[in-house]
Amino acid sequence: MATVDDAAAAVRDGDLVVYPTETVYGLGADALSATAVERVFEAKGRERDKPVSLAVPSVESAREYTRPSDRELAFMREFLPGPVTVVLERRDTVPDVLVAGRDRVGVRVPDHEMALELLAETGPLTATSANISGNPSARSVEDLDAIRERAAVVLDGGQTGGTGSTVVDVDAGTVHRRGARADAVESWLAARD
Question: 82 in a domain, yes or no?
Answer without folding.
Answer: yes
